[in-house]
Amino acid sequence: MTKKVLVPIDGSTQSDDALEHALEEFGDDDITVFHVIDPVDAGYSSPVAIPGGSEEWYESAKEEGEALFEEAQDVADEYGVTLDSATELGRPARTIVEFADDEGFDHIVMGSHGREGVSRILLGSVAETVVRRATMPVTVVR
């Protein structure tokens, strides 16, 4: 039976490593790369007070996601695998878990940012939250 494997990507080295792992371990299954557009990232870089500013930020974030998907497919081509892709807007950990549940994924493979100390306490860990909340197995690649 073919598994549905979700690989969240964000352009980091860790998410690249997670994609490589998924392609090596689950290359015969259905792999979907998933990018979450976090509205918190808009922060001060987006002129949200200017009419249309938030729309411009969102469109730019979507384009960045599409570029990540193209890069991921280039890697997958080396394995002879065609990837599916999806983008959602929301807080990363919650959005990953909800999407995986809603779409019936069997496994999540994701990178760990390896935060330590104060930054981990203050920022939390997307991977840690996904591991705690997901209803399916999660592989965290370091």
Task: Name its key features.
142 residues, alpha/beta, Rossmann fold, five-stranded parallel sheet, 5 helices, globular
Report what the structure shows:
- The chain contains 5 helices and 5 strands.
- The chain has 142 residues and is α/β, with parallel strands linked by helices.
- It has a single domain (4-141), classed as 3-Layer(aba) Sandwich (Rossmann fold), CATH 3.40.50.620.
- The protein has a 5-stranded parallel sheet, with helices on both faces.
- Helix 1 (13-26) links the parallel strand 1 (4-8) and strand 2 (30-37).
- Helix 3 (92-102) packs parallel to helix 5 (126-133).
- The longest helix is centred in the middle third of the chain and has 25 residues, at 53-77.
- The radius of gyration is 15 Å and the shape is globular.
- The two termini are 28 Å apart.
- 28% of the residues are buried.
- The mean pLDDT is 89.
Overall pLDDT: 89
Please give the CATH class. Answer: Alpha Beta
The biggest beta sheet reads: 5 strands, parallel
Distance, first to last CA: 28 Å
Specify the helix fraction band: 40-55%
Number of helices: 5
* Full CATH superfamily name: HUPs
Number of domains: 1
Shape field: globular
The CATH architecture designation is 3-Layer(aba) Sandwich
Question: What is this structure's SSE topology?
Answer:
Blueprint lengths: L3 E5 L4 H14 L3 E8 L15 H25 L6 E6 L2 H11 L4 E5 L5 H7 L2 H8 L4 E4 L1
Parallel strand pairs: 1-2, 1-4, 2-3, 4-5
Helix pairs in contact: 3-5
